[in-house]
Specification:
Blueprint: H1 6-9, H2 12-27, H3 34-47, H4 50-61, H5 65-75, H6 95-121, H7 126-138
Helix pairs in contact: 2-3, 3-4, 3-5, 4-6, 5-6
């Protein structure tokens, strides 16, 4: 019921301040698990905070890759969908932050993509597998 309500009653600066405070509260936990790290990224992104975004990218990159992929898949489905327009950055004010987040985005999206196309290659009949591969290769980029 309250989802999105802050945007109706709080100015953008106050919303961002709330996300910074939530980020700091999560960070205050002695041991972060993968879900905490995923929440950190969400709140750093919503706060549009350069230092928190960079810190969070480093935290997530330091976690075992399989755990990060699992966390992103379950907690941050939005990450692979951000800043997809050619030349668009995650964070305009700092290209380094954008590059770190783009790297994280790629490391999250690639396992998701591979998981979605793997069943195509598990087809037992070679002729069907070859046809599926040929179709994927010849699809126009917009398909």
């Amino acid at each position: 019921m309250l989802h999105g309500s802050a945007a109706e009653v709080w100015l953008l600066d106050k919303q961002r301040q709330a996300h910074r405070r939530i980020y700091d509260a999560i960070l205050g936990v002695r041991t972060l698990d993968v879900i905490d790290a995923a929440a950190l990224l969400l709140h750093a992104f919503a706060a549009n905070d350069e230092s928190r975004l960079m810190h969070c990218a480093r935290v997530l990159e330091g976690i075992d890759e399989k755990k990060v992929s699992s966390a992103i898949y379950h907690q941050l489905l939005w990450l692979p969908l951000v800043a997809l327009v050619p030349g668009q950055r995650f964070f305009d004010a700092n290209p380094s932050v954008s590059a770190a987040l783009r790297h994280l985005q790629f490391s999250v999206a690639l396992p998701m993509l591979l998981a979605s196309i793997t069943p195509v290659f598990l087809i037992t009949e070679p002729s069907k597998s070859d046809a599926a591969l040929e179709t994927m290769i010849t699809l126009p980029p917009s398909a």
